[in-house]
Amino acid sequence: MPSVLITGATSGFGKAAAMRFAKAGWSLILTGRREERLKALESELSKQVPVLTLTLDVRDSDAVTKALGELPEQFLPLTCLINNAGLALAPEPAQKVDLKDWHTMIDTNITGLVNVTHAALPLLLAQGEGASILNLGSVAGQWPYPGGHVYGASKAFVQQFSYNLRCDLLGTGVRVTDLAPGMAETEFTLVRTKGNQEASDALYRGTTPLQAEDIAEQLYYLATLPAHININRLEIMPVRQAWSPFNINRDPE
Ligand SMILES: NC(=O)C1=CN([C@@H]2O[C@H](COP(=O)(O)OP(=O)(O)OC[C@H]3O[C@@H](n4cnc5c(N)ncnc54)[C@H](OP(=O)(O)O)[C@@H]3O)[C@@H](O)[C@H]2O)C=CC1
Ligand SMILES: O=CCS(=O)(=O)O
After folding, report:
1. Residue 117 CA to ligand 2 centre (angstroms)
2. Could you tell me if the ipTM is greater than 0.95?
3. Boundaries of each Ketoreductase domain copy (predicted)?
4. Which of 20, 65, 83, 223 sits 20 to 30 Å CA-CA off 215?
5. Which ligand has the minimum distance to the alpha carbon of residue 86?
6. 114-172 pLDDT per residue, tens
7. If you ran DSSP here, which 8-state letter would residue 134 be given?
8. What letters, b where the CB count within 10 A reaches 16 and e where it falls short, cover 217-246?
9. Of all atoms in ligand 2, which is nearest to the CA of residue 155?
10. Which atom of ligand 1 has the smallest separation from the CA of 8?
11. Per-residue pLDDT at 140
């Protein structure tokens, strides 16, 4: 039975992915900080497949290394790692941001992702051919926008780290993909605005954003491609999102 480790399974893409992989009969290792949500998911999905939940902050490298070093045999070797845990904070301009918010994004989206990848690599190498690392990047990693500052830069790291991992994993059979979604309706904007439900609702109102299930479907597709195929980067936007022209700062008339 193939197994998948999903970080950030308590919400959004991670939770939808847990459901999608369970439907296909995969064993699940689900992580997040909110234990009660993990337990609820476990009691629902363990009727279908083996489920292990780990209450874990990806920023804590010792805890990550310990937890992944002690996985029960039943879940090994690991077929797929979904590095999904992440967040954006501080939508305001860089010059108005609290430095702590930049650190939180770097610690989660970069250091956390690296912590989990480092601990999971031996488990994926034990699988070899057909194994995958699916990293949640973002359109923000490729395309700049106002208020993107460290969030976009952290996702650019995810892209380049994914590509560089591919170089080192050549010959091992382990695949790496940077999956880069655009606007998707999850708790993402609620987190970004520090709990402003109105702002979150306003962003998604009157349009058709991606849904968590859309991304879960892509994750499942990537994880089950024939073993000789590696999609390096998959960028997905809703049809109703596109780029804007450059902004120009002009003198007053
Ligand atoms: N929604 C969007 O528009 C897009 C999102 N993304 C990326 O997709 C990923 C998932 O986002 P999405 O599902 O939308 O957002 P959600 O806020 O719905 O989910 C984020 C998940 O990350 C977990 N998480 C956050 N910080 C930590 C931490 N320190 N340790 C462990 N888990 C953590 C949360 O769990 P808990 O709080 O329980 O720890 C939660 O399960 C993120 O990396 C995001 O940057 C990329 C492109 C578009
Ligand atoms: O990563 C999230 C999508 S966006 O807010 O940068 O468009």
Report:
1. 23
2. yes
3. 2-186
4. 65
5. 1
6. 999 999 999 999 999 999 999 999 999 999 999 999 999 999 999 999 999 999 999 99
7. E
8. ebbbebbbeeeeebbebbbebbeeeeeeee
9. 1
10. 41
11. 98
- Hey, what CATH class is 3-236 in? alpha beta
Domain-by-domain residue ranges, the chain?
3-236
Catalytic residue among 151, 204, 220, 221: 151
pLDDT score at 224? 98
> How high is the mean pLDDT of the chain?
98
For residue 151, indicate whether it is catalytic: yes
Global pTM reads 0.98
Judged by its nearest atom, the ligand closest to the C-alpha of residue 191 is 1
Query: Cβ(53) to ligand 2 under 6 A?
Result: no
Among protein residues, the one with the nearest Cα to ligand 2's atom 5 is 183
Q: Are 28 and 45 in contact (CB under 8 A)?
A: yes
Alpha-helical runs (H) found in the chain: 12-23, 35-45, 61-69, 99-105, 113-127, 149-169, 188-192, 197-204, 212-223
Distance separating alpha carbons of residues 93 and 88, to the nearest angstrom: 13
